[in-house]
Amino acid sequence: MTEFDVVVVGGGTGNNVAAAAADAGLETALIEKGPLGGTCLNRGCNPSKMLVQRANVLNGVRDAGRFGVDATVEGVDYAGMVDEISSTLSSAAENMEADYRDREHLTLYKEETRFVDERTLAVDGEEITGERVVVAAGSRPSVPPIDGIDEVEYLTSDEALYLDEPPDSLVVLGGGYISVELGYVFWSMGTDVAILERNDTLVHREDGDVAETITDVARERHDVYTGYSATAVEDDEEGVTLHAESQAGDVALTADELLVATGRRPNTDLLALDAVGIELDERGFVDTNEYLETTAENVWAQGDIAGNSQLKHAGDYETRHTVASVVHGERRSIDLSVMPHVIFTEPQVAGVGATEEELAAEGREYVVGTARYEDTAMGRAKKLDTGFAKAIATLDGEILGCHVVGESASTLVHEAVIAMQSAPGTVSDVAESIHAHPTLNKVVEAAFRDVPR
Ligand SMILES: Cc1cc2nc3c(=O)[nH]c(=O)nc-3n(C[C@H](O)[C@H](O)[C@H](O)COP(=O)(O)OP(=O)(O)OC[C@H]3O[C@@H](n4cnc5c(N)ncnc54)[C@H](O)[C@@H]3O)c2cc1C
Q1: CB count, 10 Å around CB of 295?
Q2: How far, in Å, from the CA of 96 to the mean position of ligand 1?
Q3: Interval 195-253: pLDDT, tens
């Protein structure tokens, strides 16, 4: 049995915990079965945003005529794009691995592991134990038990990000952020895309007006089936057929490829966690308290597997708290109340805080301000005829939420994030700040100035 001060399971956000522990002189083991950098670098945020950027460039050329510029797309080297993305990201992962192998006090195990007891893990015939253990083993695509799913070939985001060529046609099961991002990418590359979603809109967790806008935009590009539940799937020489039912009747959608984008499940089952007393919550995520402590002593969990917020920046935020506990012996509670999120389609979606629907469900009183991009100078210059910003506040002006759909929403939303972080962030904090003219930020300023005060 090899003994360590700290053992970290999972080299996604977990790699920063391992590096901090080793740099502090603690004997540290990092166990990762795949490339370092985890989902975000290899199968998530990075490759998806690199594809979205290429789609944006393509659509920019196609749109050039709207600005009086004569330009046409002569061709798209999709295989070349994917090759470049793949080699850029695999180099980053390999460099990280080389760095970690050289690091003092750090032992890297490139193995699949599972727990033997609370703080002991099995790695390739050996057992290692940590005085402190961090579980950062992430999540993987969740595939619903639809009739026939095990008999057909389907894609998840893992494969869809690295196809050699875009399929001629694609059916996407699920209408969340992965669906609309990849739907946008493949549509841009010339694929006929159909999206099937059981809720009434795509991205249904967003503010209602935002979800409707994105659904309307998607309907212009794709065949969108909302309110449908998948019942069965089959394949033949024509392709893959997804059967679904709704109150409006049944549909059968056939395409070259099926992308299953119905959420992600925690990797808890692969680690045999519950067998060793690291308890799971009712959703199957590791049960953690506000200090990211699990039910086992000296075992912490963070990132997707802890289930607080399945976003990279949430995992990075939690990393800072885990490091404080594991490396510095502090106990800092997490506060995820101001957690922005973004959907990188075009137009982008970004939000922070409560939606109108959530506040209405809680019976809370609130006021709203909105502004449209097209009513701002930069919105007109850029011909942004879709998109708006919405600010939501208490009756006495405390910001409760901000939701933006439109170009650069991912950047603009941070005005509200920063105001809300300095609690209590007020409508005046944004509305009375002088915004440079003519920036896109003016749409955020206008939304906050529109809030009744
Ligand atoms: C297509 C896609 C796009 C995304 N886009 C965004 C985005 O734009 N913005 C954003 O904030 N988030 C995005 N995300 C989510 C983001 O990638 C995750 O929230 C984040 O990567 C989670 O980090 P983590 O450290 O919890 O897990 P991971 O990064 O998944 O790391 C866990 C690691 O543990 C390893 N592991 C698991 N089990 C074992 C085992 N038994 N033995 C050894 N190793 C094991 C895995 O191989 C993995 O590398 C996206 C995700 C996807 C799939």
Answers
A1: 16
A2: 16
A3: 999 999 999 999 999 999 999 999 999 999 999 999 999 999 999 999 999 999 999 99
**Whether residue 351 has its Cβ less than 6 Å from ligand 1:** no
Catalytic-role residue among 204, 328, 403, 437: 437
Does residue 332 sit within a domain? no
Task: State whether 169 and 21 are in the same domain.
Answer: no
Q: Are residues 65 and 178 in the same domain?
A: no
Where the chain has pLDDT below 70, the residues are none
Domain, as residue range, for 374: 347-449
Ligand 1 close to Cβ of residue 38 (< 6 A) = yes
Q: Are residues 111 and 237 in the same domain?
A: no
In the numeric block, the tokens 């957690």 are attached to 339
Domain ends where: 262, 287, 312?
Answer: 262
Looking at ligand 1, which atom is closest to the CA of residue 112? 42
Domain count across the chain: 3
315 lines ligand 1 (CB under 6 A): yes
Alpha-carbon span 91 to 85, nearest angstrom = 10
Whether residue 185 sits in one domain with residue 56: no
Is 339 a domain residue? no
CATH number at residue 435: 3.30.390.30
Q: Which residues contact 31 (CB under 8 A, 6 or more apart)?
A: 7, 8, 9, 10, 11, 109, 111, 113, 121, 123
Residues 132 and 279 in one domain: yes
Instruction: State if residue 76 touches ligand 1 by the CB under 6 angstroms criterion.
Output: no
**Pocket of ligand 1 contains residue 312 by CB under 6 Å:** yes
- Same domain? For 255 and 317 the reply is no
Check residue 318 and give left, alpha or beta (phi > 0: left; psi -120 to 50: alpha).
alpha
> Is 222 among the catalytic positions?
no
Residues 72 and 17 in one domain: yes
Q: Atom 1, ligand 1: which residue's CA is nearest?
A: 44
Give domain status of residue 64, yes or no: yes
Residue 39 CB–ligand 1 contact under 6 Å = yes
Instruction: Give the residue from 242, 262, 282 where a domain finishes.
Output: 262
Q: Measuring CA to CA, which residue among 44, 264, 261 is closest to residue 141?
A: 264
> Which atom of ligand 1 is found nearest the CA of 36?
49
What token pair was written down for 181? 């991002």
**Ligand 1 centre distance from Cα of residue 197 (Å):** 24
Atom of ligand 1 nearest to the CA of 302: 26
Q: Are 126 and 7 in contact (CB under 8 A)?
A: no
Distance from residue 48's CA to the centre of ligand 1 (Å): 13
- CA–centroid distance, 16 to ligand 1, in Å, is 14
Residues with Cβ < 8 Å from 118, sequence gap 6 or more? 133, 276, 277, 278, 296, 297, 299
Give per-residue pLDDT as tens, 254-294.
999 999 999 999 999 999 887 788 999 999 999 999 999 99
In a domain, 55, yes or no: yes
